[in-house]
Write a structure and sequence with these properties.
630 residues; Rossmann fold; 3 domains; five-stranded parallel sheet; 40% helix
Amino acid sequence: MKIFFEKSDFDEVKKCRTMKLEEKLSVIADMIRLNALNTIICAKSGHIGASFSAVEILTVLYHSEMKIDPSNPKNAERDVFILSKGHAAAALYSTLASCGFFPTERLATFRRLNGLEGHAEISAPGVETNTGSLGMGISKAKGFALSAKLDGVKKSVYVLVGDGELQEGQNWEAVLSASHWKLDNLYLLIDRNYVQTDMPVERVVDISPIREKLKSFRWHVEVTNGHDIGKILRVLKKIRKIRGKPKAIILNTIKGKGVSFMEHPVALKSGKGFYKWHDKLPFGEEYRKAWEEIATRIKKKLARHKIPIAFPVFRPDLAEKPPKTGESLVEAFSQILVDVGGKKKELIVLDADLAESCGLREFQITFPERFVEVGIAEQDMVSIAGGLALAGKLPIVNTYAAFLTSRANEQIFNNCSEGSKIIYVGHLAGILPAKPGKSHQGIRDIALLRNIPNLLLSAPSCKEELRRIFEFLVFDYDGPSYLRLEHNIPRLQIPWKEQKLELGKGIKLADGKDAVMIGYGPTMLSEALIARQMLEKDGIKIKIIDLPWLNRIDEEWLLRETEDFETVICLENHSTKGGISEELNRILGRRIYTIGIEGYGKSGENGEILAYFGLDAESIKQKVKKWLGK
């Protein structure tokens, strides 16, 4: 059953003789928009708002302006396009499929194991560079542009960035040297949709006036309507004649363009100032309305020009809302933060444009004067926290673990060297949720932080333990700390109960005689407990310990808990390199078995990714039986 427009359908539109170019591209844009919608719906994950605002510029570039050869994607003389705002991957993938870079049916593999990665990556033919972490695109585009200059190849390099993305400092470093090097083959395209994540850019950190700033950096700058295909074509034709300086086009767009209730002027009003279609999906009736609104425009134009296309079939079953299976730690963190904030007046919460995702919205509403939104600027946020701490405040720094611990690592090190008390919260830690892919999976954070001498690392496994640890870090611990927060809802809630929390010591979750498993966080401990139930059927009993302290382990306690076991197993929701298994091995002075992540992360459904890396209960069971010789 056909749910996507195929390349042959796009070809039919392009060869229509009664349509002018602008109208053809307008129809193609909506066909790409509908494919992008279905790509995201099939995955039950993705970014509709950011994808829809970029459709027209992608359509113009790939179906009119760029020198490309889908049969030879790496042709040395090709024009290059880089999607710096990599979360708009569904729009790019749909555009590439419409040109024939890969079969259209592959769109149904978006955010699935061995399919199209969650943020645009080079594993898909036609994608020039990996994406996901914002701020890198202009610099990478400069690399392509500089290489073309050095090789004497006449080619254009285009890079599309989001307007909120311009808060990331690397962009301005890139802008500065591009004009210094006179890279007139470089085209910066700014998707000026005025909304980042779920709030207007001006409410987060205002980046205007963009045109004047770029001109002051000696760029040629044009401004146009990013949804008016005729205007886009004309401005591209105009700026090609400019020599001796890089060129920028500010494309005024609408986030969610093409579906009336998703378009940000309407959606912000209905959302009381917040935009919900950044990464939320239209289920049920909302999906039907979105599909029909786009499809109706396409059908009218196809009928008017009698273009023979078999239209995709509407599939309401694709938009069935998945059931909620439990509470994640981030939901508990939201309430804990408000409770503790009410008792600790010095507590200041800092955010890098992820307030909703990180459970900070309730604190923002309750204590607006103590909520600091810095935008997409992790290094700046961490150094601001350093100044606040030296001035007597208690900063709580929040963003995704993958961004916080790598991008701002030097700033964290600097703050810690001052002895300042700051609590860094690394959200979305671990391999799950897996659909966003490697750029968003925090599986290197322990390795990146555990060698900072006075930084305490912890990883709660359930909401009770999270509350105890957070209160300890706020009220009792005198030093910097890192709270590793997994957002995944585990298959089995951790039976923590009312147990004593002691720094450096773990908590026994289950007793056993054949082997001992030591782990942290809800995902791996949940799978371990399920594996233990399975092993009991084979007469094998495993002791399981929740060890929330990742780099401060009581050696006497550990030796006592493991002395009766020949087989010691460490469970890591992290790379096998640099995690706590290395510390356990050092203390015990003997071999321990490690279950963790080898290599880079991957997009996919949570269950299939756990199985792929051997982290699910069935894989744990098989490994334990092997190691025990049973």
